[in-house]
TrEMBL record:
GO terms for cellular component: cytoplasm. Zinc chaperone that directly transfers zinc cofactor to target proteins, thereby activating them. Zinc is transferred from the CXCC motif in the GTPase domain to the zinc binding site in target proteins in a process requiring GTP hydrolysis. GO terms for molecular function: hydrolase activity; nucleotide binding. This is G3E family GTPase. It comes from Plasticicumulans lactativorans.
Length: 339
């Protein structure tokens, strides 16, 4: 049996969403699919006794539970150790050679520190790669939850895939209102309505792009900038929502000289690193054969990846920012000051 990790690493997907929003239901349904059988699952529970584990029926023991605290706060570091242990067991043949890892966070987890720790862990980088955040949002109660709970807003803003769960019982007006709210919180992602966790795996996985030869489809899906079409950062902050989290996109038609982008990017990090919840985008650097791919989570950035060529006809610089309290006008002004 070939146990070498696939080229580029084993994809790691974070499944998050507020309490009771349908994470376990989704995972249980997904894991019954034969094409997802070779998945390892890490479940993070509050409290000493985890119940979710029992709800996920698995024949083997590729389900690991992080009980007793939340991986985003009291158990920082624990996730990395668990991934390392799973790798050892995979290499030793004591678990099946899993092809992906699904991590279910607690309903109150802030996905940002989890992702930041993972991306920053060089020791894991030769085996694993980040493959996106899936966030479940309860279509019945989601609107109220998003109003009240900052964690729920962070989970939605962070998502690469948004699932509106319980679509079988939610009134269509509630789903429409929720879609509108989510479009402000995370304009790049079109939410999928699902019932009882029934969703095609192709719609969920393969969100991240770390391949210099990525196709146009892959890049566009990852960037999710289509939701921003025709929209730019404006002084009036049309995308301001909630007390703090904002989503905005910076667009430039003309290529940016490398020194301009570097100056802008370095100063942005120096000034507001901790408030950059998520940044992703393509930068058209003057003279380069392809765009520079930028991906950062809470101030921790993957190395800037120059793509071999442009994946499609749209060669504009498009940078999507999900921030805590940074005004679009400020970001715009910062870039202008270097142009
Ligand atoms: N009708 C309906 N009920 C659902 C759906 N998805 C989940 N539920 C129910 O909602 C409740 C919570 O679902 P879970 O999957 O346990 O939610 P969770 O996000 O894992 O919950 P926590 O672990 O507490 O954060 C359960 O009673 C599920 O049966 C759905 O699509 N339709």
């Amino acid at each position: 049996m070939n146990i070498a990790p696939p080229p580029g690493g084993i994809p790691v997907v974070l499944v998050t969403g507020f309490l009771g929003s349908g994470k376990t239901t989704l995972l249980a349904r997904l894991l019954r699919r034969p094409e997802l059988a070779r998945s390892a699952v890490i479940i993070n529970e509050f409290g000493a006794v985890g119940l979710d584990h029992d709800l996920i029926e698995r024949a083997d023991d590729d389900v690991v539970e992080l009980a007793g605290g939340c991986v985003c706060c009291s158990q920082r570091g624990e996730l990395g150790q668990t991934l390392a242990r799973l790798r050892e067991r995979r290499e030793a043949g004591s678990v099946a050679a899993f092809e992906r890892v699904l991590i279910e966070t607690t309903g109150l987890a802030d996905p940002a520190p989890i992702l930041r720790d993972f991306l920053a862990d060089a020791w894991l980088a030769d085996t694993y790669r980040f493959d996106g955040v899936i966030t479940t949002v309860d279509a019945v109660h989601g609107l109220g939850t998003l109003e009240r709970e900052p964690e729920a807003r962070a989970q939605a803003a962070f998502a690469d895939r948004l699932l509106l769960t319980k679509a079988d019982v939610a009134p269509s007006a509630a789903i429409d209102a929720l879609r509108e709210r989510l479009a402000a919180l995370n304009p790049g992602v079109v939410p999928l309505a699902v019932a009882a966790g029934e969703v095609a795996p192709e719609a969920l996985f393969g969100a991240a792009v770390r391949d210099p030869r990525a196709t146009r489809e892959q890049v566009e899906r990852w960037l999710g900038a289509r939701g921003f079409v025709g929209w730019r950062i404006a002084a009036s902050e049309p995308n301001r929502h909630g007390p703090d989290i904002r989503a905005q996109v910076l667009v430039r038609e003309a290529p940016l000289p490398a020194a301009v982008f570097r100056g802008f990017f370095d100063l942005l990090l120096e000034a507001r690193r901790d408030d950059l919840l998520r940044v992703k985008g393509l930068v058209n650097i003057a003279g380069a054969p392809g765009p520079l791919l930028v991906h950062g989570v809470q101030g921790s950035f993957e190395p800037l990846l120059p793509l071999a060529g442009w994946p499609g006809g749209d060669r504009r610089t498009r940078l999507v920012f999900i921030t805590r309290g940074i005004s679009g006008a400020w970001i715009e002004g910062l870039l202008r000051s270097f142009e």
